[in-house]
Amino acid sequence: MDLVLSAADYYFFTPYVYPATWPEDDIFRQTISLLIVTNFGAYNLYFFFATLNYYFVYDHSLMKHPQFLKNQVYREIMHSVQSMPWISIPTVLLFLLEVRGYSKLYDGIGEFPSGWIHLIVSVLSFLFFTDMMIYWIHRGLHHRLLYKHLHKPHHIWKIPTPFASHAFHPMDGFLQSLPYHIYPFVFPLHKVVYLGLYIFVNVWTISIHDGDFRVPEILKPIINGSAHHTDHHMFFDYNYGQYFTLWDRIGGSFKNPSSFEGTGPLTYVKKMTEEECNSRAGNGCKNGKSFSGDFTKTE
User: Fold this and answer.
1) Could you tell me which of 27, 190, 22 has the C-alpha nearest to residue 95?
2) What is the pTM of this model?
3) Which residues in the chain land under pLDDT 50?
4) CA dihedral angle for residue 242, residue 83, residue 78, residue 28, rounded to 10 degrees
5) Which residues pair with 223 in a beta bridge?
6) Closest to 179 in 3D by CA, of 189, 164, 192
7) How far apart are CA 217 and CA 231, in angstroms?
């Protein structure tokens, strides 16, 4: 995060915001700057990628599902907008530790004898470490003593859209993001790679809420995608993982997605639409025809 803060200082904060007498490495100035940068980045990532996904990937026929709530998209957005500033407060404290040199983030590829190999291994290590940690945190949030206080707000959305991706109780959102911040304090990681992974995990979180259930056949047993996560929202006790199915299989919480078995929410909407068409056989069934094309890309 110090790379982002340095750029923000150089192009914006130092010339236009703070007095020249306030040094850039002052801890209070860094805290304020990180709060601004973190919230600005979070809102931009959320609205840019969730909006793109909503209009170009998300299957809008899911909005006909009976468990899709009234004004749900608006409610998801408002919940996210209200939660993100609160999530940013503890997040900034961790970013501050990184900026002040307490993490194992590094600048140069040459700092390790294996160079690029170490960098590639660190990416894989980051994914597997955070997937494991998020699985157990997420599963813990489903414990009856925590669920109703922290995680239940995210399960309001039984049929989520991309805008539900960040619609968490603030403490829930922070706890599930914590593994991303813990990793560079435990393992060396290149600063640019860390920023790239930070963007990636936000995009991934949006993608598993987007209702696009397509997965290459060879990856279906491995990848925890939108089909798995939609079933998690619908059936509660399954598919807690973030990227992979590994820990769900180890922990006994894996469920083969209903969408892969032809019983998912899109199939339900299609059958519901066909039944409505049959009951209105005299009107040409125009609405039903408009839905039929949407199912070919997903189920």
Assistant:
1) 27
2) 0.87
3) 287-299
4) -120
5) 244
6) 189
7) 18
